[in-house]
Write a structure and sequence with these properties.
Layout (H helix, E strand, L loop, with lengths): L8 H22 L10 H17 L18 H11 L5 H4 L6 H11 L2 H12 L5 E4 L16 E5 L2 E12 L6 E7 L12 E7 L5 E6 L9 E12 L3 E2 L5 H37 L1 E2 L2 E2 L4 H29 L5 H26 L1 H4 L5 H10 L7 H19 L12
Helix pairs in contact: 1-2, 1-3, 3-7, 5-6, 5-7, 7-8, 7-9, 8-9, 9-11, 9-12
InterPro entries: Acyl-CoA_dehydrogenase, Acyl-CoA_Oxase/DH_mid-dom, Acyl-CoA_Oxase/DH_mid-dom_sf, AcylCo_DH-like_C, AcylCo_DH/oxidase_C, AcylCoA_DH/ox_N, AcylCoA_DH/ox_N_sf, AcylCoA_DH/oxidase_NM_dom_sf
Keywords: FAD, Flavoprotein, Oxidoreductase
Protein name: Acyl-CoA dehydrogenase family protein
């Protein structure tokens, strides 16, 4: 049998080391952040960069990157267990240097960048000396359809002049450079997939105007609105070749979606753990909550969903590792895990009652962050549309939908 849900001993050892590092080093160091006695920004920065140094010393740096580029060289299946352990705390993936948007940008630069671009942009990103952002989403058009973007670049001699409007650009205010998607083939019809080009933009730069940090449900956390006015870039700043912006963006988003799922599973598991712990320790109307059928159903539904989430992520990850077409499986996982995350945290809040609604537990903050998951990297409805299209296409081609439901041996 080729199906095996166990990890090789060397990977079990890595998981144990990541878990120990996160639980014994990271969480104790950051648990006071944002509490009643908030630390100064200087202390906050000193702490998290010291933790990054410890992660490198422990050999837990860049789990998603090849060894020749200073990473751990893990495949997607092995990466899933690292991300799930790291995301037990919000800062965990960042401390291991495998958090969004830098993680996706690293993959993109490695695959699409020329040697000079890799040395200038990828190398310092891998070493933790620089940060980045990915600028594609716009307020005037649907964010789930990048073929509609209006930001445009016009060639002027050896330079490109770019004008446009972006928003919800995560990490923009902290970024040292951006990967900017703009339309360069202005004569192509709306919806054409070869009209966009990716540009590398050093920040700060004249013409790149950071207007504001968009306030979200979970506060101001670095999602910027950008107005681009006569931004001039040499042709050498094109990443991946002219007209390849759409392909580059889709290449970036595939594994990035699954990496989000890996981290969301960790948060869902934390919520389920808290739900069960509360049920075992809260007494009401003659018995513990854990003895009441209504609460048991909440726990059971959450456990079943979390099991499904883990299986979907592992299977999608295995398809990426094998070089197979993973688009349908990743879309399914992204949709299902995001919705399960919302439901499981919501149930945990319900079992905690008013305490869960308060900020005395992390559940309220987790729920605010979780709501974003249902439209990040493609709204639920877009994934449902693509899944349906591929399911119909599979049936038309083969007379069966089996290929569109994982193509599994059953």
């Amino acid at each position: 049998m080729a199906i095996d849900f166990t990890l090789a001993p060397e990977y079990e050892e890595i998981r144990a080391r990541v878990r120990a590092f996160v639980q014994k080093t990271v969480i104790p160091a950051v648990e006071g952040f944002g509490g009643e006695d908030p630390v100064s920004r200087e202390e906050y920065l000193r702490t998290i960069f010291e933790l990054r140094g410890k992660a490198r010393a422990e050999g837990l740096w860049l789990p998603h990157m090849p060894k020749e580029w200073g990473g751990m060289g893990l495949g997607q299946v092995e990466l899933a267990m690292v991300q799930a352990e790291a995301a037990k705390t919000r800062l965990g993936p960042w401390i291991l240097n495998c958090s969004a948007p830098d993680e996706g940008n690293m993959h993109t630069l490695l695959h699409w960048g020329d040697e000079e671009q890799k040395e200038k942009y990828l190398r310092p990103l891998l070493e933790g000396r620089k940060m980045s952002c990915f600028a594609m989403t716009e307020p005037e058009v649907a964010g789930s359809d990048p073929t509609l973007i209006r930001t445009h670049a016009v060639q002027d001699g050896d330079e490109w002049v770019i004008n446009g409007h972006k928003w919800f650009i995560s990490n923009a205010r902290r970024a040292n450079f951006a990967i900017l998607i703009a339309k360069t083939e202005l004569d192509m019809p709306e919806g054409a997939r070869g009209a966009n080009t990716a540009f590398l933009v050093d920040l700060p730069q004249e013409g790149w105007n950071d207007v504001r940090e968009v306030e979200t449900m979970h506060g101001s956390t670095g999602h910027s609105e950008i107005v681009i006015t006569d931004l001039r870039l040499p042709a050498s700043q094109i990443l991946g070749g002219r007209g390849n912006g759409h392909r580059l963006g889709q290449y970036r988003l595939g594994p990035a979606r699954l990496a989000h799922c890996m981290r969301w599973i960790s948060q869902a598991e934390t919520a389920l753990d808290m739900m069960v712990d509360r049920a075992l320790n809260r007494y009401s109307h003659g018995s513990l909550l854990a003895d009441k059928q209504g609460v048991q159903w909440l726990i059971a539904d959450s456990a079943m969903e979390l099991y499904q989430c883990k299986l979907m992520v592992l299977h999608a990850a295995s398809k990426i590792d094998k070089g197979e077409d993973f688009r349908t499986e990743v879309s399914m996982a992204k949709h299902f895990v995001a919705n399960s995350l919302n439901r499981i945290i919501d149930r945990a809040i319900q079992v905690h009652g008013a305490l869960g609604y308060s900020t005395d537990t992390p559940l309220a903050n987790m729920f605010q962050h979780a709501r974003w998951a249902r439209f990040a990297d493609g709204a639920d409805e877009i994934h449902q549309m693509r899944i349906a299209e591929r399911t119909i296409a599979a049936y038309r081609a083969t007379g069966s939908t089996a290929v569109a439901t994982g193509n599994l041996p059953l």
